[in-house]
Amino acid sequence: MSGKILRIAAIGGAAIVAIAAAVGGWTVLGPGPMAFAKGGTVELAAYKGPSPTGVPAALRSASLVKRGEYLARAADCAVCHTVPGGQPYAGGFAFNMPFGAIYSTNITPDKETGIGNYTDAQFLDAVRKGIRPDGTRLYPAMPFGSYTYMTDEDALAIKAYLMSLPPVKSPPRANTLGWPYNQRALLGLWSAAFSPNKRFEPNPEQSPEWNRGAYLAEAMAHCGECHTPRNIGLALNNRQKFAGATNAGWRAHNISSDGDSGIGNWKTEDLTAYLSTGFANSHGVASGPMGEVVDYSLRYLTPDDLKALVTYIRSVPAVAGDLPNRVLTAAPASYKAGPAATLAGSGDRAGERIFAGACAGCHDWTGVSPLSPAATLTGTRSINDPGATNVAQVVIAGVHRQVPQDILTMPAFGHSLNDKEVAAVANYVTARFGAQGSRLTEADVRKLRSQAAQQ
Amino acid sequence: MKGTLQVNGVAHDVEAPDDMPLLWVLRDMLGMTGTKYGCGIAQCGACTVHLDGKPVRSCLLPVSAVGDKPVVTIEGVGTTPAGAKAQKAWIELDVPQCGYCQSGQIMSASALLANTPAPTDADIDAAMAGNICRCGTYLRIRAAIKRAAGTQA
């Protein structure tokens, strides 16, 4: 190799190292999840206000297992550690990523395949540092970067609850990650850079309600793990906190306080209803992973905790999203009129035909359902997403919310419609009822299906 | 809910759970069994009734959402001009085979005819695609709609 090439290679190499160091420094030094708030933090023990951690007042005198149950629900352990329709907490839930799949583990007290032999110290290390008893590292699909803010007492209450469950013998499924993602040792570097191993610190300049909400959102519900975009190192980028991101084939929308693209324009009662029942007027029904969050976790929060959570979420600064403003007016009553008529006018009427047969009966040609406000498409964030990610997923998987009131169900069309048909109907409805028609292809839908697949 | 339902121009006092589908109320409480239960998930159209003139799937419409809007069922649609024309054409062309879906077909067809007196094939597709017929009477349904509209002999 000539000297000139070597020199270029050396300069190139040095530049890459320098860029990596700069990017690394920028990300490592990135703000923590609560750094946006005015005021400094103090250690929990030094905080004078009412305790922001633990269970609500009404449950303080309940048994350890009962308290653990409330906290396990607040931390939403069940949804990822349970295969849909499978044994609770027995693991096997798939996280499908472009570079392979990770499967969640069995956290029932089975001694061979679960966590039956875990000591308190081992449990705390797994939940808060992502380190298993044998020293190997967990993938950050386990949100230990958020759970790290949990107190010892709360994490151990959750352990007591898990240990009270019937043990299920269910061996872990082997992950299917390719190189270099299958090198668990590298995860130590990831944790060193991105997981602070730090407990929750309240902010005395914020209200007690805000502090409780911060604990619930960050240490427990780990909202940011889906709603905050990730940086080049796949760590949460809190400079864009709650600005929205796509995970497992679903779009987690912007929940910063930005007016239209976030939740800035939502009424507080709508936000509370959405989180606790999975539905709010003119905002549609929580579906996919967010629907599961409501089903398994948020609907169990006490009204005070819900209020605290809403207070905290609303305090997160606005980050403008990249989606167009929502269309809030109904489409014309006739199928012949409206924006999607142009799409149909192009000669491609497949989406319109599918809509007429399978969708119009509930959703109406106007998008405002005569049957239930929950089936109204007009004004929802997902119908106004020109990516149509969630629209396609809802068509495939349907909606099955387990909420006490109303009928929140939509049949799954994933088996009766092929990829091309799902794309056609998604493109049609986003054009007819949303801000801008999507351009999904058959291949896009195939990809979305595989990302959300559980088997 | 406890209230009054306007069905086919007659007021009925009804006491039912809020989330009970209108179809249950019509069939089990008011004894109007002309409207059929098909799929129960608004996918087949057999349960179609008119709510304020619009065709809706009564199997998923909570009775509490009806309010004071008038409901018209297959038992009463013959008193509307479009409904009378549809029923006459249905009889003349002997549209039904087994007949189970036909109440819903006539309800959707008469709502179409009331708004679009001379529907094209595309209009018929858009309005009727959500009404499924296991016997495959679609061609006769299309012909009957056109006969009722006076656009075909």
TrEMBL record, chain A:
Record-annotated Cytochrome c domain positions: 63-166, 208-317, 346-433
PROSITE patterns: CYTC
Main location: membrane
Highest taxon, organism lineage: Bacteria
Residues spanning the membrane: none
Keyword Heme: yes
Subcellular location(s) of the protein: Cell membrane
Keyword set includes Transmembrane helix: no
UniProt name for this protein: Cytochrome c
Native organism: Sphingomonas quercus
UniProtKB/TrEMBL annotation, chain B:
Membrane-spanning ranges: none
Keyword Lyase in annotation: no
Pfam families: Fer2 (PF00111), Fer2_2 (PF01799)
Keyword terms: 2Fe-2S, Iron, Iron-sulfur, Metal-binding, Oxidoreductase
Protein name per its UniProtKB record: (2Fe-2S)-binding protein
Keyword Ion transport in annotation: no
PANTHER family linked: BLR6218 PROTEIN (PTHR44379:SF2), OXIDOREDUCTASE WITH IRON-SULFUR SUBUNIT (PTHR44379)
Domain 2Fe-2S ferredoxin-type: 1-77
